[in-house]
Design a protein that fits this description.
Elements (H helix, E strand, L loop, with lengths): L13 H19 L15 H16 L3 E4 L5 E5 L8 E7 L12 H16 L7 E7 L12 H6 L18 H7 L17 E9 L4 H4 L4 E7 L1 E10 L3 E2 L11 H18 L5 E10 L5 E2 L2 E10 L2 H21 L3 E10 L2 E2 L2 H15 L4 E4 L5 H4 L5 E6 L15 H21 L1
């Protein structure tokens, strides 16, 4: 194996970056057609499409000079050895599953760009001071069974046995679906990775938001992944005839809900916390045109990069809901059903990424990720870093999701240098 000296790194030239970007885009198109529906991209965990995708990605890993394997939850791996044997790895990765009616780039771009970096090393017979591993996570989205990050949770030994009984919309359990594609539910524990075998986890991902697009930047460094809370809320009032009950006598929970939603928006617009909130579902009961509602059920999704600020904001928002309800003679109840803490990216890794992007781009925006990623799970055992690449207009989880070829060309050159610097410095 050829070692690397500190004065040299395996630079990707302009012609090579164009060639690699073209291949990435061609492969993205190929994978986008592996779908349970012909008219869009839908690729769910433990499906025929999942296994077919794994086999194709495994083939590309082998062509890049990697040893490959699939673990017992369906993650696909490739390993490219270091210049000396038995070195720990820098693990690069993202997910290969999609939401229904998905975009082409979410998750996939990070895996395929990582393969091209290894392909470049292999083509030039270069091995770095640490091994490079790539993982295509089997399930990040959680679309099929309602549990997110199933692939990466297996690596960190956070996979719960009770999940085997969870069912999809067709009443198929995870256990049954695993057996259908040849996975052994008794060997899930073997997907766990030893802490010492991996030095760091790096994830390249589309931003899925408009920040880089608005700032005309191809790339940015992720500072943190937002914490998220999801709360079921209920406003309970009193039904009445829509034509006979005077406005001033009504106990209308929909009016209270509306006042509260506007309060949330106004508070967050005034805030400097970068917290965002979404009312994603509202159900109005009894739901008749000529009946004053007696109950409103809704969901609150609220996210932010700092746990203490997030918790304080939630407390204030729920307090206001009770105040509004008391004023209007109705009842408010809430119950939190989902909670993740914000995760900070490793400072040293973040600085290496930022310095490298600054060098190649002339600037490096730093931003928190509003979306969840496999890096959340990985941070429980290893230092993490993330690089964002812009997507046009910030559109994601949609067939309109798009990444520019020129951004991939720029990113792959930068990514190679980032990986080299990481193998030298961590």
């Amino acid at each position: 194996m050829k070692d690397i000296v500190n004065m040299y790194y395996p630079k990707i030239n302009n012609n090579e970056s164009i060639k690699y970007a073209t291949r990435i885009l061609n492969r993205i198109e190929k994978l986008s057609k592996i779908s349970e529906n012909k008219n869009n991209t839908t690729r769910l965990y433990l499906s025929i499409e999942h296994i077919k995708t794994n086999k194709i990605v495994e083939k590309w890993m082998k062509l890049a000079g990697m040893q490959t394997w699939q673990d017992q939850v369906g993650n696909i791996y490739g390993r490219y050895e270091a210049c000396t044997k038995k070195q720990p790895a820098i693990l690069l990765g993202s997910h290969l599953d999609t939401v229904p009616n998905a975009g082409k780039y979410d998750g996939i771009l990070g895996v395929l760009t990582s393969i091209e970096v290894v392909n470049h090393l292999n083509k030039n017979k270069i091995h770095l001071k640490k091994a490079i591993e790539i993982v295509g996570f089997a399930d990040e989205e959680g679309t099929r069974f309602g549990i997110t990050l199933l692939g990466s949770k297996a690596l960190t030994n956070k996979w719960k046995k009770k999940w085997l009984n969870y069912k999809d919309k067709n009443k198929i359990t995870i256990a049954h679906a695993m057996k259908n594609i040849g996975l052994n539910t008794n060997k899930i524990c073997l997907a766990k990775r030893n802490t010492k075998d991996i030095k760091a986890y790096i994830e390249l991902h589309i931003e899925q938001g408009p920040y880089l697009y608005k700032n005309n930047s191809s790339m940015g460094v992720v500072s943190a992944i937002n914490g998220a809370k999801r709360i079921n809320c209920t406003f309970t009032g009193e039904s009445g005839h829509a034509g006979t009950v005077p406005i001033y006598m009504r106990k209308d929970p929909l009016i209270a809900t509306s006042e509260w939603i506007l309060f949330i928006e106004n508070e967050l617009l005034k805030s400097k916390t970068k917290i965002v909130a979404t009312i994603g579902k509202i159900n109005c009961y009894p739901g008749a045109t000529n009946v004053i509602p007696n109950k409103i059920k809704l969901t609150l999704d609220i996210r932010g990069p700092k746990n203490n600020e997030l918790n304080k904001t939630i407390s204030n928002i729920l307090k206001k809901a009770k105040e509004i309800s008391k004023k209007r003679n109705i009842i408010f109840n809430s119950k939190k059903y989902y909670s993740t803490k914000s995760i900070k990216c490793n400072k040293k890794i973040k600085n290496i990424i930022k310095k490298t992007i600054n060098k190649t781009q002339g600037n490096c925006p730093s931003l928190a990720s509003g979306a969840g990623h496999d890096a959340i799970s990985m941070a429980k055992k290893w230092p993490i870093g993330m690089i964002f690449i812009r997507c046009i207009k910030g559109i994601s989880h949609s067939p309109k999701e798009k990444v520019l070829k020129k951004d991939i060309i720029k990113t792959i050159k930068t990514y190679m240098e980032i990986i080299y610097n990481l193998t030298e410095k961590i």
